[in-house]
Each structure stands twice: as structure tokens, then as C-alpha cells.
Amino acid sequence: MITRRHALKTTAIATAACATILPALAADTNTPIAAVPTSTAPFTLPPLPYAFDALEPHIDAKTMEIHHDKHHGAYVTNLNKALAGHPDLEKKSLEELLNNPHALPETVRTAIQNNGGGHYNHSLFWQMLSKNGGGEPKGELARAIDKYFMNFTGFKDELTKSALGRFGSGWAWLVIGTDKHLSILSTANQDTPISLGLGAPGTTAGADALKGRYGTNLTHTPLLGIDVWEHAYYLKYQNRRPDYVAAFFNIINWDYVTDRYQKLAS
Ligand SMILES: [Fe+2]
């Protein structure tokens, strides 16, 4: 188990980014992780696992630099500020902070949901993208997508519809429930799918349907997410969110998504 007050340092950058928020998944890899103290703050900004211009022409370098260094960086800074003075909360993992927001003190609940959610969502997002991405998944994930969405086109259409239907800022997700069922849903602002199990925020599209099907105690974990905040695309695409979402499918890191699926579905 990774000590909460220790940042991660490893030669495998992607593994370090993953381990920052998902120590359980990181423990499944064979990559040794050396924990070294670099800060007294509970959470640190994981490095981008590729160069700022790696996703050109689909996402431009300046957008990636501002998105990672400034926006994600601010979520981490403000999460640490919200936790300061709450030693009981500082000991918790990011997942523990987010998966039951109603258990958080009211004075810091919104700050932790917004900034902790921003840290969680973006830490995953960088790894879900690759300059060698795109195409379609293979193997078990491909068969699961066919099972729940008819085929890849059905999946792509539903995720696109969710991304374009999100009013204002938020995310569209492919998630897996604890019953292994795959679903598409959209969350507002920096709400995360892992917060849905014990009472979804009222603005989360799809949450009511999930509750109706499973009750309120089923946990959903994201496999793939599209950030549809304007900060993710405005420099290149301005108001053309459909063009950004279409380009997103050219850089999906299906190897990473498939690896997450296999670990969570097994
Ligand atoms: Fe973002």
C-alpha cells in the first residue's frame, strides 16, 4: 500500500500516474514502484505520460499544456487546501474521498467533490489517450461492447450522443458496474462515476436509469471518459464540440482501456 503522504516516483511514467490514484491497479503490475517523499501535501500532480504535442493534430500542444499544468494542477492544489486541517481526511485515498460524498464534512464537501473529482478524472484521462490510439478495441472488451451496444458503431454513437448532450461542462463515460455491466453515462462538472453508488448528484445524466436498474448501491468505475469542458478543446475547436468529440476517437488508448476492463471484469 502506498503511503498517503508520499508522492510516487518511477521510471514508468504511465504507471506512476496510474498509481497516484489507483494503487490497487498499480499493484497488479510488475513495475517496481519506489515511494519517495517529495511533498507534505497528500496529493501531487502526476506527470503527463507523453509530450504536450504527442496528440497533434487531434489535440494541440498548447491545449494539453494548459489543461494538464494549469487546470489539473489547480485541482490538485485546491484539493490539498480543502483537506488541510482535516487529518482524518488526509489519510484517505482519493477513491475513499469520492465514493461517498455524503460522508464528507459539509464545510469541505463541495471543494473535495469538485477538486478531488477533477484530480481523479484527469489522472485517468491522460492515460486514456495515445498518439498511437484510435481504431477499435480487440478481445474481451470488444466482445463486451458488442454485447451491450450491439457493435462498435452502436457504442461510438451512444458515447458521442452522451458527450454532445452534456449541457455546459462535464464528462461522458464508458463505465463498468460491479455486476460487470457496461453503461454510458454523463456527469456534470467534475463529478465522477465512482460517486454514484451512494447517491448520485442530481445533474448526472443516466444516473436515474442506473438506479432504476440496479438500486443505489452499485458502484460504477470509469473505463473511458471524454472531457467536454471547453478548456479541453476551445483553442483548436472553439464552439465545435462535435469536431473535438469526433477527433477524440482517433486517440483513444484502447490498450489502456482494455487493461482496465480486464482487471475490473475479472
Ligand atoms: Fe479537463
Describe this structure in words.
This protein has 266 residues and is mostly helical. The protein folds into two domains: 61-128, Helix Hairpins (Orthogonal Bundle); 139-265, Iron/manganese superoxide dismutase, C-terminal domain (minor pseudopilin epsh fold). It is built from twelve helices and five strands. It has helices at 13-21, 23-26, 61-83, 87-90, 94-98, 106-127, 139-149, 152-165, 207-214, 234-237, 241-248, 254-265; strands at 7-9, 34-36, 170-177, 182-188, 220-227. The strands form two sheets. It has a three-stranded antiparallel β-sheet. A two-stranded antiparallel sheet has the order 1-2. A hairpin with a 4-residue loop joins strand 3 (170-177) and strand 4 (182-188). Helix 3 packs antiparallel against helix 6 (106-127) and helix 7 packs across helix 8 (152-165). It is globular and about 50 Å long. 38% of the residues are buried. Mean pLDDT is 82; it is low at 1-38, 198-206 and 208-216. The structure holds fe (ii) ion. Fe (ii) ion (FE2) is lined by residues 67, 71, 122, 227, 229, 231-232.
The neighbouring-strand order within the major sheet is 4-3-5
Bound molecules: fe (ii) ion
The mean pLDDT is 82
- The oligomeric status of these chains comes to single chain
In short:
With 266 residues, this protein is mainly alpha-helical.
Keywords:
266 residues, metal-binding, mainly alpha, single chain, three-stranded antiparallel beta sheet, 2 domains, binds fe (ii) ion, TAT_signal_bac_arc, 5 strands, metal ion binding, 11% strand, superoxide dismutase activity
